[in-house]
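Kindly go through one protein, given below as sequence and tokens. The question is how this chain folds according to its tokens.

***
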Amino acid sequence: MTKFKLLTAAVSAMALILVLVWIQGGFHHKVPAGETKLPKEQIANVNTFKAEKVETSGEVTVSGTVLARDTAKIAARVGGYVTELKVDAGSTVKKGDLLLKIEARELEERSAQAKAALESAKVDMEKTKQDFERYKVLFQEQAIAKKEYDDVSARYEMAQASVNKAKSALAEAQTFLSYELVTAPFDGIVSEKDVNQGDLAVVGKDLLTIYNPKSLEMVAAAGEQYAPFLSIGSPVIVTVPSLNIKENCSIREIVPQRDEKTRTITVKAPLRDTEKMTPGLYGTMSFKTMSSPVIIIPAIAVKIVGQLETVRVLDNGEIKTRHIRTGRTLDDGKIEILSGLEPGDEVVVD
């Protein structure tokens, strides 16, 4: 009885294996990979295009970021509490506009003391001036000794020096006091606000960031192997996908220093259409390199399902599906074929 059960189990397992193999197509003929033959069709009115090999300039596309050439990070030059805040992120400002005010009481007291010191120095100078004028007349009349005249003259000169010193101290105190008022260095837009009203501003700490929207440019990192094809003034195509913007630009600057980690050079191209752009947007920069032969067909002939790319090919009176791999999209609606087609293959474009 035990042997019978073992035999039954073995036969059942074998049957299950055979069913699984049949389901997975193990007993069916294989379809050649990369090409699927469709039923014969009427092809008299089918439009085709013969894949052709042409010389085209190599085009390289690298990723970049929209940045502002004119950007100012505004930091506190004096310490104190922010008592007024006039802007937010996104605010448009003009040069000289008040952005915020910092209350620095120590500087206010210092300025007041400097003013008082200057007034006192002026009073002393006025007194010594009167003495000097009087002694000057007496000395000219030979009514006093030269030593007395020299002493008064020295006191007057010292009083004048004290006034000049007090004026310098007051000017310095007022200069520092003016740092309480933080103003815009140029026309622009506030991109970042790192402080709120009531916060304590610390000397050197960033408060706001302002950029000039007219100075936006695409900054991209290109592999160092492309350096021979890049120079100032070279034409490039800049694309910002999120805004559906594509424009022709010229390289403004190339940073010669290579990045040691990525082995890239930084390329900058100013943008013309900046109305909707803001710093930080993703974009691409494309430029020409060495020309090379490529196979091209109309882009509309390519069908894409997921990651699978196919075209229909007219072959010996039959239309077959051919798996391909595409490359760059070229001008005039053409696309580069990296594999799957040969020059002269008739591609259906209907």
About this structure: The CA atoms of residues 119 and 171 lie 14 Å apart. The radius of gyration is 41 Å.
